[in-house]
Specification:
By secondary structure, the chain is α/β, with parallel strands linked by helices. The chain is about 35% helix and about 30% strand. It contains eleven helices and 14 strands. It has a six-stranded mixed sheet with strand order 6-7-8-3-9-10, sandwiched between helices. A four-stranded antiparallel sheet has the order 2-1-4-5, covered by helices on one side. Strands 12-13-11-14 form a four-stranded antiparallel sheet, covered by helices on one side. Helix 3 packs parallel to helix 5, helix 4 packs antiparallel against helix 5 and helix 5 packs parallel to helix 6. The radius of gyration is 23 Å and the shape is elongated.
């Protein structure tokens, strides 16, 4: 349905997006992950026809949207990172304004405003000024505005940053309903890995302007098929002991966590035995250990060297 082909954007000497190829099938929910500065927002701006690429193209059903941006604007709703509302207007007045911008027919606009307000759970607050809303409520109005024209595709760029848990859960449920119940195609970026794991069928991981991996979650997990992850709690931890763990053959990464040490090693290595011997030499006891199942966060860290919130 939607495809980017060799999409690139250069600002002066800096290449923010470097020849990326992505696609979204009808009815899919796709995650776009990357650390800060990876090029996600620039990519979204080019897909949404808000910014022209330096090279490459965005295709909608096989046709260039660079040449005909009106085609994608008819079927696309965008929820930006920053709140894009008029604070001195009510939620209803904001939606009426954006509905006219989207050229929703006058006979349909009133009922459509009520539908989207119901969807985001703000029908009872529609007459209140936006400036009286919490950050989470404002983001829900933002989502409602992006849905007024019945978009076939919706892009949500960090829609839950800095909001309360109740609004966050409501937004996630709204996205799930749009995708699963209404068949809306979704492109979703987030700093919260669990959201992408919960909502998305496929995932693209972006770093330094490039797509470094893509696939279903199970396909991405297979990237770590050569590694084991142990979470171990010791009676005490010292820097000398951590260095001793790092020196063990087949250890690939050692991280201190809130309640112990996370050790990533070559799959099949006899790591627990080696750890016990190292602990004995440093007069340290192994209190508890657990082998972890790989997560999407592990894949991301493996590919980019960073956690998603870095």
């Amino acid at each position: 349905m939607l495809e980017t082909v060799g999409l690139s954007k250069t600002f002066k000497e800096k290449k923010a997006v470097d020849g990326i190829d992505m696609y979204l099938d009808v009815g899919e929910s796709v995650g776009l992950l990357g650390p800060n500065g990876a090029g996600k927002s620039t990519t979204i701006s080019m897909i949404a026809s808000l910014m022209k690429p330096t090279s490459g193209d965005v295709l909608l059903n096989g046709k260039s949207t660079i040449k005909n941006p009106a085609d994608i604007r008819k079927v696309l709703g965008v929820v930006p990172q920053e709140i894009a509302l008029y604070e001195e207007l009510s939620a209803y007045e904001n939606l009426k304004f954006f509905g006219k911008i989207y050229q929703v027919k006058k006979a349909e606009l009133e009922s459509r405003i009520q539908e989207v307000l119901d969807l985001v759970g703000l029908a009872e607050r529609q007459k209140d000024l936006v400036k009286t809303f919490s950050g989470g409520m404002k983001r829900r109005v933002n989502i409602a505005a992006a849905l007024l024209h019945h978009p076939k595709i919706i892009i949500l760029d960090e829609p839950t940053v800095g909001i309360d848990p109740q609004s966050r859960n409501h937004i996630l449920e709204t996205v799930r309903r749009l995708n699963v119940e209404q068949g809306t195609t979704v492109l979703y970026t987030s700093h919260y890995m669990e959201e992408v794991e919960q909502l998305c069928d496929r995932v693209y991981i972006m770093d330094h302007g490039k797509i470094v991996a893509s696939g279903t979650q199970s396909e991405l997990f297979s990237i770590l098929s050569s590694e084991d992850t142990l979470q171990v709690q010791f009676s005490k931890i010292s820097e000398n002991f951590l260095e001793a763990i790092r020196a063990i053959e087949h250890v690939r990464r050692v991280e201190e966590t809130g309640d112990g040490v996370r050790i990533i090693s070559k799959k099949g290595s006899n790591m627990l035995s080696e750890l016990v011997h190292a602990a004995e030499r440093h007069h340290i006891q192994v209190i508890h250990f657990q082998q972890e199942v790989p997560s999407l966060e592990d894949v991301f860290l493996h590919l980019t060297g960073k956690t998603l919130r870095d």
